[in-house]
Design a protein that fits this description.
Length: about 150
Amino acid sequence: MTIPFDKNIILNFFSYLSTDAHNLIEDVVTDDFTLHNPFDTKHSMIEMFEAFLLLKHYIHYSFTHVNDENHNTYEAHGNLQILDAEEDISIRIPMSATFSIRNSLILSIVLSTTASRSEKEILLRIRRKALKDAVVLLNKKISTAV
């Protein structure tokens, strides 16, 4: 299912953005933290939106600027705010996101950050914890559905 392209839908989508649960580069602590084409070829916005929903508790993305460069490419800059009361973590990492859209489908997403090495280590730790919790939630959903 695809939906008509709307900037507000994109903003809502990225407000839940944390990490790509499927193909994020595992070694986030390297100097380059860039995620490119995180999904197989073409997926609808709805499908991709669902992939991020379970991680929204940990990481929040807030935009400061959206720039319409051309009809197919959009850019956003903001801060990735990581909140985890259990581990007493609250940091803000500057990030930018560039995504290409054609026929209401997101074709590619590129994320980049200027985070320090220690911030990336925190991001990796929180990501692993979030994914573990997401698996537990999914298993509960599956077991109650059967």
